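To: structure desk
From: M.T.
Subject: fold request, one chain
Message: Could you run this one when you get a chance? Sequence is below, nothing fancy, just the single chain.
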Amino acid sequence: MDLTDLEAEAKEQIEATFYDYIAGGAEDELTLDDNEAAWSRLRLRPKVLRDVRTIDTSTTILGADVSSPVAVAPMAMQHKASEEGPVATAKACASTGSLFCMGLFGAGSAADVAAVAGDAPKWLQVYVMADRERSVDAIARSAEQGYGAVVITVDVARQGNRRRDARNRWTFLQSDGKVEDPNELFDHALTFDDIHWFVERSPIPLIVKGVMRGDDAQACIDAGAAGVVVSNHGGRQLDGALATADVLAEVVGAVGDRGEVYIDGGIRRGQHVVKALALGAKAVFVGRPAMWGLVVADQKGVEGVMRGFQDEVERAMALCGVRSVAEIDESLIARVGDGGERVV
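Reply: Done. Structure tokens follow.
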């Protein structure tokens, strides 16, 4: 799996403005870059002389069976990557036994995505809109459509200052062709009390996405959330924010066994996945790699990315001396300093 080549190939096939929208981050893109770099600051401490003839990458996410702990994150504008848009992504996840999180702005029908056959779980991601009934309606329909959880993204108090998009005069188009200002779309008065309000109205478990602190994660769980996604919106919101890998352990410690913790941001290798699980994540979400696969080869492209991750996770687990996801623990992890020294 060569995601660098895949991205380069995708870049050649799409408009430069769309490429910048997907690939870019906020301001100087420090957090965007650090999301990837942070995984390299972690090192693995492999075990040897274990029987690793058989490796099982399967696990469960909120009790649903998946083939590996790698899921596809919610992504906007998938219709510009493929004619089938998120339906193609959903089919790829069904084919590979992977969880797919359908995004509110995925520019496709949530009902069409939900109708994709297969046993792989699907989640629905929503924002809390200024017109709150839009969000309530989407959540209310989610269970009827077959979604297993609803994900509320909470890190959009303001739209990030994305310099590439400003330079390109990028406009946010809805699937019906309307242009909307994201700063006017979302509810900017959202609090933990509102999370509880939505939990009470959701027929399925609610996950909070965009958490970067242990105290916030604990408050989300106190409000009734079933779990949190450690996320800085792919480096697209607050530049200078910590990388997700650097806050994962804190969030896991705060949540404990009261909920599940997931993470996204800069995950590009199977060994990154193993590191995330060793730090306590239940699963990881990937966004841009799946989008590049969708651009290059539609459903087959996303399938290739997900199978590539599964192969790399299997190999990394074997080389770490663990036979199942359950055997991955914090003893496999070490952090290194700038001088290469081990930092416990």
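Reply (cont.): DSSP finds 13 helices and 13 strands in the chain. Let me know if you need anything else for the meeting.
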